[in-house]
Amino acid sequence: MSESTVIAVRAERPYDVVVGHGVLARLPGLVEGAQRVAVIHPPTLIAAAAHAGALLDRAGFEVVRVDVPDAEAAKTAEVAATCWSVLATAGFTRSDVVVGLGGGATTDLAGFVAATWLRGVGLVTVPTSVLAMVDAAVGGKTGINIAEGKNLVGSFWEPRGVLVDLDLLAGLAPSELTGGLAEVVKCGFIADPRILELIEADPDAAREPSSAVLRELIERSIRVKAEVVSRDLRESTSVGRVTGRELLNYGHTLGHAIERRERYRWRHGEAISVGMAFVAELSRQAGRLDAETAERHGTILRGLGLPTTYDAGAFDDLLAGMSVDKKTRGSTLRFVVLDRLAEASVLAGPEEELLRSAYATIAADPAG
Ligand SMILES: NC(=O)c1ccc[n+]([C@@H]2O[C@H](COP(=O)([O-])OP(=O)(O)OC[C@H]3O[C@@H](n4cnc5c(N)ncnc54)[C@H](O)[C@@H]3O)[C@@H](O)[C@H]2O)c1
Ligand SMILES: O=C(O)C(=O)C[C@@H](O)[C@H](O)[C@H](O)COP(=O)(O)O
Ligand SMILES: [Zn+2]
Q: Where is the 3-dehydroquinate synthase N-terminal domain (predicted)?
């Protein structure tokens, strides 16, 4: 095992995110006290799940492997109910532990199952995509989707620990890796501009699974997330400058509406990339952000191969989709906007014309 990095999350129940090669071997140490351990994973991660199972088995734990559908198809009430039945059949008690091994969709589902089974059992996350490593598996937000919108059902439930095993990235499709970089870019704009400089200096290295650049980007992004959730686990309502958890929702108001409109066939990171291009323009047109920083969004995102435009005819649908965003209060839409690099605030109740105008600048040319 090469040298690992430990990033502490100082939330209600402190835990560590361990980043490095081969750190999956630490899994048995994180489930101590359990008799049974359920490893929830998608079909694509069967080999890693088998490896995790063998490590646990050798350490004397009773392993229950739970194969769930891939990607967003796992984030449903039906799949959660199937997992509860598996736990019931296995005789899962309050001292037993759920492991979520996979991309963000799997860790969101597994977290939700752990939070709800017997009103809450231990959880360990083993993220396998860049997106889950830097974001979904860290911070204790869990959830599932319903037809009416993204992540509308869920809970805050912190893991006992997060194992970011960089070896697992070798199997990740390049397009998935790139999708995850959207959340990395988000961390750059909201908190750590060094992330943006690293990507601008070498976008190809950022997309190379075994590069030192990607490792640094992952670690920096985890630090951003760890600091924010340590300050504000439960996402308090920000007024004026945003330093709490709403900061991490930058680009997500429109992004989630796109995911819902696309029936969750778009990658989360791609939708958030468009959402950031939109909100950067909204920030500029609202008179908050300078044009250069707004344009830098598109340059960096497109440089990584991420999308920054969306269907010109979709605005009305998207506006309806944005109304169920969790930052909405009453009928007031609230956006996290940038005032300058690494400084965000809330734009509450913008005029529809302003939203339309910002959208028009990112809308795809129907002819093109
Ligand atoms: N809870 C949070 O704080 C939070 C934060 C960000 C995103 N999310 C959620 O995370 C989800 C997106 O996560 P994602 O982009 O990881 O999507 P995902 O879980 O759908 O994974 C993307 C694809 O990559 C595959 N995959 C993952 N790791 C792999 C590996 N190592 N080798 C081979 N294939 C692999 C998956 O099987 C899937 O097909 C969304 O549902 C989003 O809402 C949650
Ligand atoms: O951790 C958070 O808080 C975030 O907002 C991170 C987002 O990247 C993530 O996609 C999250 O799941 C969105 O949360 P939601 O509350 O808007 O569903
Ligand atoms: Zn996200």
A: 66-177
- Is position 86 within any domain? yes
Ligand nearest 326 Cα, by number? Answer: 2
Which of 154, 171, 188 corresponds to the end of one domain? 171
Q: Is the dihedral of CA 106, 107, 112, 117 positive or negative?
A: positive
Q: For the chain, how many structural domains are there in total? A: 2
**Mean pLDDT, the chain, integer:** 97
User: Which residue's CA is the nearest one to ligand 1's atom 19?
Assistant: 103
User: To test the ligand 1 pocket, which listed residue (45, 131, 270) has its Cβ within 8 A of the most ligand atoms?
Assistant: 131
Q: Contact 230/204 with Cβ under 8 angstroms? A: no
Handedness of CA 286, 289, 290, 293 (dihedral sign): negative
> Residues 160, 36: one domain?
yes
Between CA 113 and CA 116 the distance in angstroms is 5
User: Which residues are CB-contacts of 28 (< 8 A; sequence separation ≥ 6)?
Assistant: 55, 56, 58, 59, 61
pLDDT in tens, 17-55: 999 999 999 999 999 999 999 999 999 999 999 999 999
Domain span including residue 244? 174-199+232-364
Tell me: do 247 and 319 sit in the same domain. yes
Candidates 152, 139, 149, 146; CA nearest to 183 is 139
Whether residue 144 lies inside any domain: the answer is yes
Residues 77 and 31 in one domain: yes
